[in-house]
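seq as requested:
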Amino acid sequence: MKYDPGTRFFDEMFSAPGQVRPHYEGVEAYIQRLGIAEFERRRHLLDAAFRNQGITFTVYGDTQGTERTFPFDPVPRIIPASEWAHVEAGLTQRVRALNAFLTDIYSGAQILADGVIPPELVFTSAHFRREVHGVVPPGGVFIHVVGTDLIRNEQGEYLVLEDNLRSPSGVSYLLANRQAMTRIYPGMFEGQGVRPVQQYATALLANLQAVSPKPGGTVVVLTPGMYNSAYFEHAYLAQQMGVELVEGRDLFVDAGRVWMRTTGGRRQVDVIYRRIDDDFLDPLAFRRDSSLGVSGLMEVYRQGRVAIANAVGTGVADDKAVYAYVPDMIRYYLNEEPLLNNVPTYLGWNPDHLEFMLANAGDLVFKGVGEAGGYGMLIGPAATQKDIDAYLQKVRLEPREFIAQPVVGLSRHPTLYPDTGTFEGSHIDLRPYVLFGQDVTIVPGGLTRVALTRGSLVVNSSQGGGSKDTWVLEDTAAAAAHEAVRAAQQSQNQSQSQSQSQSQGQSQGQVQDMLSPSGDGPARSYQQQLEKEQLEAAPEQARTPEAGEEPAGQAEQAGEDR
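struct tokens:
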């Protein structure tokens, strides 16, 4: 595999030119055996499968059209078990602290009284909802689904870039990537011990049902509708969970309950997995011009007769200014040191920080605290002085709405570029998905986003990014145990096949002759034919993707984070 990892950035696959990291050796050998031409041919099949199944995303305001097939690179990102254990522990710690923070600020706000976080930072957040102060959601769970964005710096350390707690999107790509890879490149997985991810929908449904106000409650997915950029994902998750996909017009409030219109009459709804932002949920409580929500929904929610996931008001915890205080939350609520560090962050509302931000704008990355999807950013080193001056005018006018961070050299990963047919290093990040409830469930892997524009550090799909399949490997002992079980099962199946091919009237001596290494009996011929058929079928299976229900559709409107 011809590839130059360079020396400036941490490379995920190579420690030095020609030196493959141990957990990538199997994949590198597979690519070598397959050859670039065949690898590229199968990538075209993969693109066609995504296109035929509607795995697209939307870029709003693009004059060339909004619907695009989501780019995918088939060289997987691999995380060894020991590395993942650290990430998993850090995410679990972080989500527990964030849920404790939300519980606190919507009740006694003790963390503010103790001076750990400035009160004005919370109360001036656009996503702080006074309408739900004092409301404790079912089970005390505010953040049922979390998508935390991680990066690796030049030293290979995992850092938290931001937390997405409102409506984190993109999990459909995670599932689609894995399903497509196992169809188009099945041989790549052999002997790797890759942990599965397809159980996500089952785990999500269980997590939602656990917060239902009554046993066996009805769960629905609330979507803004088919023109939303993440609509495919909404429909896919509803289908996978076996629940109804609804729009606001499909629901109504009566007698202190939320009901769904069906062809068989009305049906009570107990849990709403909403994919719209707070502002649009209830025109009587928030935006009066919203036609996406349900009138009277917030009153039913306050009475505890319906659960909303994620809970109303969670956005204050993914405000990019509040993000800077998450390590302090961990120390305050859990009495622990953070396992995953933040990227150093300067806050516009702090006069000292603001002065530094304005003086060093050419060396920093600026972000709007409420923006997502790569919008509202200024990358100082890549910007012109004119762009910097224009951006800083906005910062001076509303300093609370901006943060700045030093430029972090995101880790790179080999990526196949179609225009050259060669592997080049592209910057990546990782969005794992966390389900929070009585227990914490983390999908082993996540969505690896890749900056396909050469030299770019922006991985968002709206800015030209794509994705990769993310593998988390089982630990060595577990992988060895599974391999032993698989080998035993294979041996047993072969024995059964041999036994079934023997005539009931044959003697024991005849059977032994048939099974002897030098024998040419029916069982041996059958086994040879079976092996021949499997060998002939395997390449065709590898090249021909099935039509299936791959998910898609990550992008944002109000509340969708990408």
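Residues 81-105 form the longest helix (25 residues).
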